Amino acid sequence: MPPLTGLLGNVGDALRKLPVVESWLNDRVASMNSWRCMAATYFPASPADANATIGTKAVYHALQRFGSCRNPRFVVGQALRGFDYENAIDEPITSLPGPHTPAFLEVDLKDFEGYFYLGDNDGVKGQPRPVANPSSVHDGSIFTVLRQHAAKGGLVGFCFHAGNPFSGGDVKDRAGEKPNVALNLAELANPAAATTPPSITWRRSLDHVAQIIKRFNAESVNANPVVLFRPFHECNGHWFWWGQREQSAFTAAWQGLFNYLTGFHGLHNLLWVYSSSNTVTQPNATFYLPNIKQVDILGVDIYHDDLWDGGAYQLFLTKGKPFAITEYGPTEGQVPPHTGADLPNTEVLTTIKSKYPRTVLATCWYTLNNNNYQISDKPQPAVLLGDPSAVTLPLPRPWTAM
After folding, report:
1. SS3 11
2. Residues 6, 7, 12, 18, CA torsion sign
3. Mind listing the pLDDT tens digit for each residue in 38-80?
């Protein structure tokens, strides 16, 4: 005889298949979604920064509505190759057939050559220059692309593959696992009062970050356009210098970064994005989540042919913040290497709708070494960009009315 729980489960399955029961359940789900949508529309949560600009609040409130209402929408994003000296910075966008283009563009802060070393014959990649050089022509081209995008109502984001301030190495230098180099992220908790060599280097990096964002703000047509700032990404992974470190020390470093940029530098147009990696489930996506009051968006970087999230979606939904797929691409580390064809635009769209319907942002990684990751290099970009659930440029209406 099957156990009682098994019998009850079978009865429950049978009941759920009855049309009247199925209709009732659908009504209950719709009702919950309506209440969630009403709360997001009329009582939206405020950004982490208590002094956030009006424009920043408007975008954040729109993102909350995108992930809460019965007809969910998500912002289509595309990462750019800020380090590319052979092709135009906006090639992933200009190569699209139109008329729709991603509403969100992300650039790595380390790619601003006037502020950070490039590597190879130019210092250690991602380490801050002693003094910033704002006259770089290359940087000017990045600013132009971002400025023009913001002028159309688009959102801009910055991730940051920062160099290791403890060892002087690049982002993948895991110094601190060596007996002769100490690495305690808590040492970065108060950049304004930096006294040790690592904390002083970190402060210089953050000062350069602030200079970049302030210049972008000043040069943009929109006063203080909205910036999604994504530091310390994939922190549950072990490949970057900040990854899988002591939990409380990571929280201290995040809080110090938040306080320094918002308080000391007065940057109030930032939405703060925390992002984990789908390839690591222990520690899970929320393990390193800092003070929830200093985070606006919770995201996961997904590199998997089936857009498998590693459980992040359900974990993040319990925290009450908008959910984002902060990077995506096919499964990595395969032989032969997988390409964009293994995660086509159509599959991204259908998977978000079916498995992650409360997603508010999905950012495609760029193409490198002919791997065809970006939206424009995969078949049927118009299917993704033209879908009614996709928020793209040109915007149908201002963010305040989205």
Report:
1. helix
2. positive
3. 677 767 889 999 999 999 999 999 999 998 877 789 999 999 9
What residue type is 144 in one-letter code? T
Cβ(216)–Cβ(147) below 8 Å: yes
Which tokens in the block code for residue 145? 């692309």
Instruction: Answer whether residue 148 shows pLDDT above 70.
Output: yes
Cα Rg of the chain (Å, integer): 22
Report how far residue 100's alpha carbon sits from residue 84's, in angstroms, rounded to the nearest whole number. 24
Strand partners of residue 107: 158
Instruction: Decide: helix, strand or coil at residue 42.
Output: helix
pTM of the predicted protein model: 0.90
CA atoms within 13 A on the CB side of 266: 3
Q: Which numeric CATH code is attached to 44-401? A: 3.20.20.80
Query: Which tokens in the block code for residue 233?
Result: 């990404």
Joined tokens for residue 40:
């997001």
* Nearest to 110, CA basis, from 128, 131, 97, 93: 128
CA 393 to chain centre: 19
**Which token pair is 85?**
């000296």
The closest of 77, 44, 45, 39 to 326, measured between CA atoms, is 77
Listed by start position, the domains of the chain span 1-40, 44-401
> What are the distances in angstroms from CA 328 to CA 17, 173, 367?
36, 24, 12
Q: Which amino acid is at 336?
A: P
Helix, coil or strand: residue 374: coil
**For 282, phi and psi rounded to 5 degrees?**
-135, 110
Assess contact for 77 and 102: CB atoms under 8 A.
yes
Name the nearest CA neighbour of 312 among 340, 330, 288, 285.
285
